Amino acid sequence: MLVPQSLLALLLIASVEGCIYRRDEHGVAVSTFSYTGTTGPLGWAHLSSSNGLCSNGTNQSPIAISSSSTPTLSGSALPVVTIPEVSAGEALLENLGSTLEVVVNGTLKLDGVDEEYKMAQFHFHTPSEHRIDEEYFPLEMHMVFKSASGGVAVIGVPFDLSDSGNSTSLLTTVFAPIASVASPGSEAPISGALNFDDVLSAVQKGPLYSYSGSLTTPPCTQGVKWMVLGKPLDIDVKTYKTVKGVLKFNSRYTQNAPGEVNLVQYAGDGSLHRVVFRFRCFAPCIA
Ligand SMILES: [Zn+2]
Fold it and tell me: How many whole angstroms from its chain centre is CA 127?
């Protein structure tokens, strides 16, 4: 039987996308990118024509933060963040394949910026995406805020393993239903109330590093106002191991310093290597 060309094309697209797209009966959209192989960070720009900044943007995230040179916010420059307590059972923990995410309401006001940012969601990466003085952490939470004009601000909160078995109460509550969201595309109600008080008071104490970067996932949009907490909060070993078993690995490699050449472009463009080499060796080369 002859198959019409348009149908054949659709079948081909479906079979290709079937490798990286999954959607369950609840409708949680699973990400089309991954952290491994050609759909991983080095290949993100090839997944869509809108992902070009992932391989050629020069203000990409995450970065290696330096306590001696990355600016910090203090006093009136600190963001004013309000996240009302979410009642038990109101929020959902969703497994997007690329992360575990929770949608909640909240607001963020930045010093010197007129418009208010609305909280869109918060999600997790393991290991941490940002490094602080070259040190990474087991887990990093990203609280994502968006303004009406399209601005994005993200607060990054690192978590470290607790020596005494303590865990930040927000994490204990958020991850309680994790066994029910082991598969990408699944979701489960969070049965406890979500309270951000401990996290927000730590953000106010700082240090809170600040820089202009990008989304750490495709399409790697730049102009993102990053604020990264310098002191990690606690997570207990048992909770972390459970989270790691579901999240697996979802951390983009450390990007070049803001304003410097994109590392994908640097690695792939031989002529760029030669230009940099000639520039660096100019004096000894002509000697
Ligand atoms: Zn993130």
Answer: 11
Please check whether residue 28 is in contact with residue 186, taking contact to mean a CB–CB distance below 8 angstroms.
Answer: yes
Question: For residue 153, how far is its CA from the centre of ligand 1 (angstroms)?
Answer: 11
The Å distance, Cα 25 to ligand 1 centre, comes to 25
Contact 144, 154 (CB under 8 A): yes
Convert the pLDDT of each residue in 116-137 to its tens digit: 999 999 999 999 999 999 999 9
- The closest alpha carbon to 246, from 96, 24, 131, 121, belongs to 96
- Ligand 1 midpoint to CA 142 (Å): 5
Distance 100 CA to ligand 1 centre (A): 10
Inter-residue contact 59 to 258 (CB < 8 Å)? yes
* Domains in the chain, CATH or no CATH each: 19-278 (3.10.200.10)
